[in-house]
Amino acid sequence: MNKHTGNFRLQIVDEVRAFAADSLVGIELIQALNGVHPIEIKNALVSAGEEPLLERAFGELNISGPVLKEILRDDNPVLSFWPFTSSCARQISDIVSEYETVALLGVPTVFGVLKERLMRRAHTILFDTDDYLFRGKTTEGYIQCDVLSAAPSQYENQFDVVLGDPPWYLEEYCSWLRTAVGLARPGGRVIFVLFPPNIRDTSKIERNEILTIARQLLLDVEFLPSGALYETPSFEQIELIRNGISPIDWRTAQFFVGRVPLNKGRLVPSGKSESSNNWIERRIGCGRIFVRAEPADIATFLEPADGKSRFLSSPSRRDRGRNRSNVISSRGHGLCCSDPRLLVDLLGRVHEAVDIENIGGGLDRESGLLLEAVAADLWPRFISVQPKDELV
Ligand SMILES: C[S@@+](CC[C@H](N)C(=O)[O-])C[C@H]1O[C@@H](n2cnc3c(N)ncnc32)[C@H](O)[C@@H]1O
Asked: What's this model's pTM, rounded to 2 decimal places?
């Protein structure tokens, strides 16, 4: 999410004022700000003392009471799983199904649509680290791999089109684009999502750098006329509610496409950024919890990463709480744990809902209560969320 400077925040307030004066409110207003996160918009308005403008601009999106939320799919915050809406996934499937051989880098929703339609596709392959959507099923065409570190070289030069939606960080784009070009056949196409210009202070510069790299690797790079619309993932839904904002689908992006030169280079396994391998995943009922092996330097066993709430106030990897967390969940939790190995062991002992009340038994009282609360949030399909203020 956006971490904007004071000036940018003032600019947000001015823009919201102008849009609201033009009767633009709610989701349309949020989308007109080109990627600024709704939580950031709200923070900017509140810190400028503009609560009445916030009331007008967000209207029905403002919520004050507790919300009972059904979580239909527990999304992966470690791998930045931001899913397309189902209609967007269908539209993108229409675009790529014009090609005979298709590689999908980190786009399981489009893979799902193409599989469902039983396309006469000779060859559609999804490369993605997370097998959550396919667990327990044999899924032909799904290759579980880390696109950052282990480029699947046996697929080199195989595809007419490669579609990619990496986590929205410059370093990941550099690696993913190189992998995409390696997988595409000479003369094939590479289509990538490009995030909007205002997701953080540096995102305009990052977008330009990505387009520069794309132009070094590809010919005739241009934007596609249609864009992407995202569903808000489960962890971010909770974070929006915690901030008193309805968990709407607001995020949009663009696509660019380029042609792979006939004399393209070889597929090069690329550099690394935060690797998924550092996180151990455990299921607690319906929910998913991710624990990183490095212990946090804290005096107790477990504490909220942002000091106040067991939920993070932002899904961004650059958020301070998220950054400190070595325990995060599909439902927006962010915690620090001084003994991750013991935590994984305790989580492994939860087989039935009744096990939750004993999970924190041997721990200091605060840590035990916190762990039980998190496990109880994760267990059912429904979660009850209070907008901020209440501790833990
Ligand atoms: C921004 S999401 C895109 C999801 C896509 N919009 C969709 O609707 O299917 C990033 C995707 O890439 C996957 N991913 C993230 N890092 C990865 C990596 N290093 N290697 C392979 N897949 C990765 C995630 O699991 C996730 O599916």
From this structure: 0.94
